[in-house]
Design a protein that fits this description.
heterodimer; A: alpha/beta; six-stranded mixed sheet; globular; B: mainly alpha; four-stranded mixed sheet; 14 helices
Amino acid sequence: MGTLNLEGVSFRYPGPGETVLDKVTLAIPAGGIFGLLGPNGAGKTTLISILAGQLRGATGKISADGEPLEALRRRRPHSLGLVPQEYAFYPMLSCAENLRFFGAMQGLTRARLKERVAAAAAFARIESALARRAGRLSGGLKRRLNLAIGLLGEPQILLLDEPTVGVDPQSRSFLLESIRSLAGAGRTIVYTSHYMEEVEAICDRVAIIDQGRVLVSGALSDVIRGGSSLEERFMQLTQRSLRD
Amino acid sequence: MRRLLALWEKEYLALSRDVLGLAVLFLMPAAFIVVMSLALSDVFRGGSALRTEFAVIAADAKLADRLAQSLAGDGFRAAPTPADEAAAREGVRRGTPSLVLIVPRDFERALAAPLDGRSAPPELRLLADPALPPTQLLAFRQRILGVALGLRISSLMRRAGIAAGADALELKRAATLNVETIGAAARPSSVQQNVPAWLIFGMFFVVMPISSLFVVERREGTLARLVSLRVPFSMLLLGKVGPYFVVNLAQAALMLLAGRTLVPWFGGETLALPARWDLLAAVTACTSFAAIGWGLLVAVATSSPRPSAASWCRGS
């Protein structure tokens, strides 16, 4: 999988609201982690939702390796994986049942499904919790289950929307290491977070967006050249006023 | 098809782990059917099958006995005579007996008065339980007037020198009345009324699990994740309709079984099943689709599981 390209992507929700994304242009290369940063309401989740196919009606072009993303998703539905910021699984089902269900929804057959469930559970280190109800897991285990579900289809493009919210330092460290290891396999990973130190630790390239516009985009070292840290650069670009 | 089966399995797993939800879907309507069928059995029973107790208070004990004998029958049964009017009032307040006829001291003299329009007819008083069905009260009232008329005619005949015992003028001896019902439809019994009524009510209980789970799926982002996996909307819809249609069919079977076995086991009547099973199946299917449709509407219109439960109540 090559570069994920966004050219002049704009979006506004139905009704008289403001434009949420305004001519967003980004080049997200494979084999690394692309950090998408922005204050609350900047349009990060909307952009992730558009890439994941949850929101329609965006204008502009989105392509992966030159092929329109929508065509790629039609041709290979599981080429794109999403780990949303919500715990997007069923709390009344066990971890194994959740993994089997979402695997089946991706069209995995029995032998392949079994294999992928085991592999995803092992990757997220949730094997010991497979029989437990998802709703009764700790915050860290829930996040790891959420990640495992996103990896079932072995996606080449992985969208991670604040995947470490509400977890303890141990779980966060584990999640960050796991995500870094995923990038090595030539995947295109888009990572959103409010934790600047996380982004500095794992991302190769970043983009800072605000009010639907890209303020800066490029290699992490280039972006923070103007400031002493990513957080300082972020505050310089997005100002200090509260957004919500 | 594999994906649809996975959606159905998920719904069943979610439902099977909701013990309270299962109780609401299956036990509650069955309990309603048994309790209400038994509680309302007297209301739906025919007049002749009802047993209403009455008593007669008169200064003359013989007259009281004679009146009680004349008034008894057709579902009205004479009870022991209360000691006085105060005891009678207390008895009626408790419902035993439901009716007490109070005969004035000069009743027989008033009956013998000439029919010249100047003398007032004898005054009788009837103490009645307000819970008594109005038709029962009306029937007893007509019965009293009939007996009084018989006594009056008997008295007048005696004065005219025509020998006629009071017994000969009793209502029950006046004529033999045979009632012939026309048509096949019988008055539905309590169980015939209650099983379909509570069955339909119970089928609408699926609105709660449908809407609650749907709201949770939407709120937790599960629905969005399924959309990102390119699960078509029609499949998501079928994933909801299929399992709850089967749940509704299971409810219908259980409720009919309750009417056939549980209600008679507790002493009620047995549910008579219709001859046209195809019509029963059609009505069940239509009711199920209405309930599931309502559940989906509630799920779409509400944003938290709590309002969805409240909307179910309004819908029912």
